[in-house]
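Margin note: ligand = 2'-deoxycytidine-5'-monophosphate.
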Amino acid sequence: MEKKRITIAVDGYSSCGKSTFAKQIAEHLNYLYIDSGAMYRAVTLALIRAGITSIDDANENQLQNLLSNIEVGLANIPNKSGWFTTLNGEIVEDKIRSLEVSNMVSPVSTIPLVRKKMTQLQQEMGKKKGTVMDGRDIGTVVFPDAELKIFMTADPVVRAKRRLKEMEQKGQKATLDEVLMNIEERDYIDQNRAIAPLRQAEDAIVLDNSHMTVEEQMVWFKKIIEDIL
Ligand code: DC
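Resulting structure:
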C-alpha cells in the first residue's frame, strides 16, 4: 500500500543539529527538505549587500523596496544532491553561512515585513505534502496543521561545543565562551521577539539530543514515524 505523505515541522534552538536531522529524515522518506533559516539568512545577505549592516539603519520604505526586489528560492545543482538556497537566482548557500550573516540574522528575522514575506513564501514552497521544513516557527505559525511536529533542544554548552568543532573544521577561530555567548544571545532574541517567537507547539514531540548521536536520533525518529504513516 502507498504510504501517505505528510508535512513535518522541525523547530528548535540554534545549533541543535536541526538541519542535519531534518535533511536525514527527508532523505529517509524521500521528502523535500526546506531550510527556513537559510531563507532568513538570504534576506540578511541582501540587506548587507544593500549596505544595511544594522537593522536600526533600515527604514520601512527602504525595506519594503528591498524586499519587493529580492527573490529567495531553491535550486537543484546537476550532480550534487539536495537543494541550494538562491538569492535572485544566485546560489548563496556558502555566503549565507558567513559570520557576518550569522551575527545579523536573528535581529533581521524580528522585522515584521521580513517575517511576513518569508512565511508566505514558506507556505507556498511547502504546500505539497511530503515536505520537511526546519526553523523556529514552523509548527506554530507556518504549518500549524503539520501532521508531525518535532521540537529540538540540547544543553547550551553541548551546542556550543558542537558549533565550535564545526567552526574549527572550517578554519574559523573562536573560543567556547564566545560561541556560547552567541548561542545564548540568539536563543534570547528568537524566544523573545514580538512576532512568531520560538516556542514549542502544544502538539510537538520534544527531542533533546544533548546525549544522543546522529544515529540514535534516527532510531528515535523511525519508531515515531512508523506509528504515523
Ligand atoms: O536555523 P538557522 O540558525 O540557520 O536560522 C537563522 C536565524 O533565522 C535564526 O537565528 C532565527 C531565524 N529564523 C526564524 O526566525 N524563523 C525561522 N523559521 C527560521 C529561522
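The first strand starts at residue 7 and ends at 12.
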